[in-house]
């Protein structure tokens, strides 16, 4: 019994200049790995345009529209959205909503559990773009899909033990890379707990700060409160994010 990989692809969340087609092709590299169980949350129109006529083994597509994200219930409360970013067209409120929903998709996949898995792993739909070596990609994704962890296994670019190095950065404005974001997995019980904590923290930030930011920053805030449920591993924004899982 292997792990279930969970991912999602949402459109019209920013003005990112990268083509849908590129992300679709990257995602297909993941979908074509036949021996791995996968749950993909996707908009119906994208499925019908790109996937309906293709056959994928061990893939469960679940239709999900952008506004099904619970965060949209709180959209009008966000009046103080401001980030330190060099890409305002990408880093929009809608983009943050999608990133922050990763844990909810994991939770939903755990509830449905069509492949009877115990461990689940979030993998960004287009993660192949940081690898672009199909042989190594297959090798490390297959290895990742069979690894088991008692708690939450999180990819981390910054060493959480050295948190004071970046203590002057505003957690609400500047991205923090204690979590890499692209891969997050582990035991279903603790992933469900994490999803519940994430939902609570997102709503709290929106209510208190009138703001929302990158999911990795919020994950870090939760990790500071519950460090015992995380098992970080060091990686870069490259193939090591799946190799070191």
Description:
The chain is an alpha/beta fold and 245 residues long. It has a single domain, classed as Spore Coat Polysaccharide Biosynthesis Protein SpsA, Chain A, CATH 3.90.550. It is built from eight helices and seven strands, in the order E-H-E-H-E-H-H-E-H-E-E-H-H-E-H. It has helices at 20-31, 44-50, 93-100, 102-112, 134-144, 188-209, 215-225, 240-243, and strands spanning 4-9, 37-42, 59-63, 119-123, 152-156, 183-187, 230-234. Helix 1 (20-31) links the parallel strand 1 (4-9) and strand 2. Helix 4 (102-112) runs antiparallel to helix 6 (188-209). It is globular, with a radius of gyration of 17 Å.
Key features?
245 residues, Spore Coat Polysaccharide Biosynthesis Protein SpsA, Chain A, 7-stranded mixed sheet, 8 helices, 7 strands
The total number of structural domains is: 1
Q: Helical amount among residues, as a percent range?
A: 25-40%
- Summing up helix and strand content along with how strands pair, one would put the structural category as alpha/beta
- Principal-axes geometry comes out as globular
Q: Do you know the CATH architecture?
A: Alpha-Beta Complex
Q: What order do the SSEs take from the amino end to the carboxyl end, as H and E?
A: EHEHEHHEHEEHHEH
Task: List segments where confidence is low: pLDDT < 50 over at least 5 consecutive residues.
Answer: none
């Amino acid at each position: 019994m292997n792990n279930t990989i969970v991912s999602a692809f949402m459109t019209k969340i920013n003005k990112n200049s990268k083509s849908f087609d590129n992300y679709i092709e990257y995602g297909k590299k993941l979908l074509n790995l036949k021996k791995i169980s996968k749950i993909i949350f996707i908009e119906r129109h994208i499925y019908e345009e790109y996937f309906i006529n293709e056959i994928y083994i061990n893939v469960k597509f679940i239709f999900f529209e952008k506004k099904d994200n619970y965060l949209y219930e709180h959209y009008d409360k966000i009046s103080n959205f401001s980030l330190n970013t060099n890409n305002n067209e990408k880093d929009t409120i809608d983009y943050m909503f999608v990133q922050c929903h990763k844990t909810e998709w994991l939770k939903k996949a755990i509830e449905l559990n069509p492949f009877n898995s115990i461990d689940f792993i979030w993998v960004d739909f287009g993660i192949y773009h940081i690898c672009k070596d199909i042989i190594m990609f297959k090798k490390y994704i297959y290895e990742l899909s069979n690894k088991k962890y008692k708690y939450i296994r999180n990819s981390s670019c910054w060493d959480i033990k050295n948190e004071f190095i970046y203590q002057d950065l505003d957690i609400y404005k500047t991205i923090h890379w204690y979590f890499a974001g692209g891969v997050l997995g582990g035991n279903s019980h603790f992933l469900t707990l994490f999803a519940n904590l994430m939902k609570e923290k997102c709503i709290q930030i929106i209510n208190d700060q009138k703001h929302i930011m990158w999911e990795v920053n919020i994950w870090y805030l939760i990790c500071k409160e519950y460090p015992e449920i995380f098992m970080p591993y060091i990686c870069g924004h490259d193939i090591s994010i799946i190799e070191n899982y």
